[in-house]
Amino acid sequence: MKLLFKQRFFSWLDSYDIFDERGETMFTVEGKLAWGHTLHILDRRGEHIGTVKERIMTLLPKFELYVHDEYVGCISKELTLFKPAFNIDFNGWHVEGSFMEWDYSVIDGSGRQIAQVSKEIFNLTDTYSIEVFDSANALYALMLVLAIDAEKCSRG
User: What is the DSSP string of 26-67?
Assistant: First the structure.
């Protein structure tokens, strides 16, 4: 399953539309006014299905992941010198990627690739292509991409 993640051009808060291969909206992400990033994920019917919420007052950026209102894990930036790294307390996954954090893979504990993420750099807004190898992982992969993108936005 391939998802196209596009930030809306005219938006005061972080807002994104996520499309499938056919160009149909799979998810909508709405940023909420709060301390730190708070992103609500809606399904194609407009029902709330997940949240990515930045924890504030931490040494390094940390994002909590919720499915509906149930906490499922977190992703936090690790202190490194050259290559960005993230600690993922979620499904035994980890991220392997490029220096610029534009292209990376999500890998499970057995080394199996869960998703491949690449940023399209010649767009006016943040645009990512997310190849999810099992559609059951689409929401979770999207949540990780949102957290990593929010961390980069906070840093920049």
Answer: EEEEEE-SSSS-EEEEEETTS-EEEEEEEEPS-SS-EEEEEE
**26-31: which pairs have CB atoms within 8 A and are 24 or more residues apart?**
26/138, 27/3, 27/139, 27/142, 29/146
| Mean pLDDT, the chain, whole residue set | 84
- The Cα 7–Cα 17 span in angstroms is 6
Local confidence band at 55 (pLDDT 50, 70, 90 cut-offs):
confident
The model's pTM: 0.86
Instruction: Tally Cβ neighbours within 10 Å of residue 90.
Output: 18
H/E element holding 77? strand 70-77
Identity of the residue numbered 44: R
pLDDT in tens, 120-155: 777 666 788 999 999 999 999 999 988 888 877 655
Residue linked to tokens 């149909």: 24
| CA–CA dist 7, 32 (Å, integer) | 15
Q: How far apart are CA 34 and CA 68, in angstroms?
A: 18
CA–CA gap between residue 12 and residue 68 (Å, rounded):
24
**Residue of 114, 57, 69 whose CA lies nearest to 90:** 114
